[in-house]
């Protein structure tokens, strides 16, 4: 029974390094993992872009003239209005990718494996969020190029354009955090897919494809307070694209709200996600 | 010699665990695993084997009792335990989209190995587990045996002092199973402590120097395979059936 403890060769130094330093390093390793997955399956990115491309074709060209005339704007002007809306809803639809990926890690045991390592558990969450934002940069670059191809333009300086892109990325980050919490809550990736249809009202009941001013009164209130509306109105302004008439407090303070919403959402989701991680140990 | 050199690698005393809404699953479990040995945790389905392994690998909290792994208290110093253990769960926990090599490098990095070191370690383990040819293919194209070997390889990245294997050979063909057994023997030979759960009594008989038989979350018998056999004057199967209330569970025995 009394076999002496062997002197184990532990590979590498067991550094009791500064916790924050490791949390940052681990976050990057986790983010890199998700990006490597994307490189291995580039069709995933193209699949994500299918919704916005279809949205541009359907709304911009099929319904475009009808929608434009009800807004007293010709088709081209409606498309100028539409594209920032499509950028915005693409950011929001990213929530599906995040939820499904996180649920897969919970189910598939990858999260458990990470929890048994000396890594920071926050890195599992933050790494996913970081990867989502980096992916969104690529998505936006592709969508903006596509928009230019469809005749969309910005009418402002490069600084304003970059600011608009940052607002869009902020929205993606917020929805990434919501997706992380949902992914930790749902029982499986399959279950998450079933709820994906719920993203449509979220994406459409906002100033994205139809200006809030054209919506029935009862719908215009939730539409105005939808976080997407602040981002889309502020980015239209920054791109110098036409907007609907500002009919709400949010629309008057779109830039402020486009920053406040993502900050508030991320701040609310982080403790929820951490609490959920702790509950996994029950 | 350090004061810990005589301490068992795994020491469990009066471990109690209940899941919310499920009731008591571990009901005062005792377990002691000597350093450098292969120890089998046997028991009918639902006996609490996976629960015990998950607690010892810091994945699950417990309600009462004491658990120490590699000289560190599981509840008070989980980080110290995590630095010293390897875990391969009942189902392979690998990234299906990444390649085997990418998986090893990923988890090596998360073990806080430097990039160069993580790469070298990945190469060594791919070689050792006969995965070199498939190293750069996505894991979702691996066979069940390859996946298991990769899972085992990942659990060995940091040369753990204590290795937890939950049903390491379930679903493997005889050849893959032999490979896993060979790996476990080699590890034990090099001084690693292995705690494994299994449904295959033959596996326990061949691999383990001691066996803890648990039932209903309690230890019901403990000893070497020969001890247990002599106690019932029969095979390990007989010991399993006589000493646990297997009949109540549907009498499943491998
Ligand atoms: N997360 C959970 N929540 C509630 N009950 C659980 C949970 N996990 C396991 N149980 C229950 O606890 C009991 C012990 O489960 P455990 O998985 O530890 O058994 P086991 O010995 O590993 O069984 P098997 O041989 O089938 O793998 C079972 O009755 C199981 O249903
Ligand atoms: Mg089990």
Short description:
The complex is a heterodimer of chains A (282) and B (254). Helix content of chain A is 75%, strand content 0%. With 282 residues, chain A is mostly helical.
Description of the structure:
The complex is a heterodimer of chains A (282) and B (254). Chain A is mostly helical and 282 residues long. Chain A is 75% helix and 0% strand. Chain A has 13 helices and no strands. The longest helix of chain A is centred in the N-terminal third of the chain and has 34 residues, at 75-108. Chain A starts with 18 loop residues before the first helix and ends with a helix. With 254 residues, chain B is an alpha/beta fold. Chain B has a domain at 1-80 and 196-246: Rossmann fold. Helices cover 37% and strands 24% of the residues of chain B. Chain B has a 6-stranded mixed sheet with strand order 6-7-8-3-9-10, sandwiched between helices. In chain B, α3 (100-110) packs across α4 (115-128) and α8 crosses α9. The interface between A and B is large, with 39 and 55 residues. Bound molecules: adenosine-5'-triphosphate (ATP) and magnesium ion (MG). Residues 19, 22, 25, 43, 45-51 of chain B line the site of adenosine-5'-triphosphate.
């Amino acid at each position: 029974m009394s076999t002496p403890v062997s002197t184990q060769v532990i590979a590498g130094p067991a550094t009791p390094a500064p916790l924050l330093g490791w949390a940052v390093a681990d976050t990057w390793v986790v983010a890199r993992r998700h990006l490597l997955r994307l490189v291995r399956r580039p069709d995933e990115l193209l699949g994500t872009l299918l919704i916005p491309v279809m949205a541009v074709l359907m709304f911009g060209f099929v319904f475009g003239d009808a929608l434009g005339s009800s807004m007293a704007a010709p088709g081209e002007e409606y498309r100028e209005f539409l594209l920032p809306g499509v950028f915005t809803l693409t950011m929001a639809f990213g929530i599906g990718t995040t939820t499904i990926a996180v649920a897969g890690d919970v189910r598939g045991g990858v999260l458990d494996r990470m929890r048994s390592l000396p890594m920071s558990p926050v890195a599992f969450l933050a790494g996913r969020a970081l990867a989502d934002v980096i992916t969104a940069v690529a998505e936006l670059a592709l969508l903006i190029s596509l928009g230019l191809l469809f005749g969309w333009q910005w009418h402002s300086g490069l600084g304003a354009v970059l600011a608009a892109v940052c607002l869009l990325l902020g929205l993606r980050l917020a929805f990434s955090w919501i997706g992380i919490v949902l992914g930790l809550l749902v029982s499986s990736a399959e279950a998450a897919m079933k709820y994906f249809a719920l993203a449509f009202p979220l994406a459409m009941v906002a100033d994205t494809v139809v200006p809030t001013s054209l919506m029935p009164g009862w719908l215009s209130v939730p539409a105005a307070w939808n976080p997407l509306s602040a981002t889309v109105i502020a980015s239209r302004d920054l791109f110098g694209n036409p907007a609907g008439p500002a009919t709400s407090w949010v629309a008057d303070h779109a830039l402020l709200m486009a920053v406040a919403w993502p900050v508030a959402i991320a701040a609310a989701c982080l403790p929820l996600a951490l609490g959920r991680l702790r509950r996994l140990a029950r | 010699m350090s004061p810990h050199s005589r301490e068992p690698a795994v020491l469990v005393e009066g471990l109690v665990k209940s899941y919310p809404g499920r009731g008591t699953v571990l009901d005062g479990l005792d377990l002691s695993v000597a350093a450098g040995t292969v120890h089998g945790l046997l028991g009918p389905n639902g006996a609490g084997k996976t629960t015990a392994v998950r607690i010892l690998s810091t994945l699950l909290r417990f309600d009462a009792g004491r658990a120490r792994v590699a000289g560190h208290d599981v509840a008070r110093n989980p980080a110290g335990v995590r630095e010293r253990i390897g875990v391969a769960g009942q189902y392979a926990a690998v990234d299906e989209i990444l390649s085997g090599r990418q998986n090893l490098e990923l988890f090596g990095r998360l073990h806080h190995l430097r990039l160069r070191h993580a790469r070298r370690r990945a190469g060594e383990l791919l070689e050792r587990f006969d995965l070199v040819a498939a190293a750069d293919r996505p894991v979702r194209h691996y066979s069940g045996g390859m996946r298991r070997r990769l899972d085992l390889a990942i659990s060995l990245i940091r040369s753990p002092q204590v290795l937890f294997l939950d049903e390491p050979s379930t679903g493997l063909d005889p050849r893959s199973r032999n490979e896993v057994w060979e790996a476990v023997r080699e590890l034990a030979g090099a001084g690693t402590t292995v705690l494994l759960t299994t449904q295959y009594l033959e596996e326990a008989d061949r691999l383990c120097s001691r066996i803890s038989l648990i039932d209903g979350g309690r230890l019901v018998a403990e000893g070497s395979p020969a001890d247990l056999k002599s106690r019932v004057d029969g095979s390990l199967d007989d010991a399993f059936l006589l000493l646990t209330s297997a009949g109540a569970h549907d009498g499943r025995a491998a």
